[in-house]
Amino acid sequence: MTARRIPLALSASIVLLSIVPSNAAAGDRQQPSTADKVVRETQEAVEATKQYTIQQKEAFTKKVHAELKEAQEKIAELRRKTESASAEARAELQKALTDMEKQKNEARKKLDGVNESTSAAFGKLRDEVSAAVEELKKSYKEALSKLP
User: Fold this and answer.
1) Band (8; pLDDT cuts 50, 70, 90)
2) What is the DSSP string of the chain?
3) What is the rounded distance in angstroms from the CA atom of residue 148 to the CA atom of residue 82?
């Protein structure tokens, strides 16, 4: 199932659950095993959704941690190269390095919120973290272009 189909399946299951009691009250009795089956299938769908979200969070967190580690290494390399730059270039690069450290720390803070996020909030948070990492990469390329 794709990520978009899971909430749809959950919604359909919830609708089915809300229909079952009203049908039974109207005299249209369903066998207990049918209602139990719907409840069980709904519980299984909910559990599958939770497991899928957990897997997605873990994979995303692992990927971003690797990207942030790589960014830290690039920042350290750029810091070493800055030492041999002219005074004017060095001042400009120092500011860029400070900005990149801030961006990296912001991305890390947002990433820390991923594990505590709900399924619904995860999508938004994932997009925010991805955007923060992309901005960090862009800043690195800009700073690198300022090297003599």
Assistant:
1) very low
2) --TTHHHHHHHHHHHHHHHHHHHHHTT----HHHHHHHHHHHHHHHHHHHHHHHHHHHHHHHHHHHHHHHHHHHHHHHHHHHHTS-HHHHHHHHHHHHHHHHHHHHHHHHHHTTTT--HHHHHHHHHHHHHHHHHHHHHHHHHHHT--
3) 9
Neighbour tally for 116: CB within 10 Å: 10
User: Which pLDDT band holds residue 103 (cuts at 50, 70, 90)?
Assistant: very high
Comparing C-alpha atoms, which of 148, 130, 126 is closest to residue 53? 126
Residue 35 clears pLDDT 50, i.e. is over it = yes
Q: What is the mean pLDDT of the chain?
A: 81
Q: Is the pLDDT of residue 27 over 80?
A: no
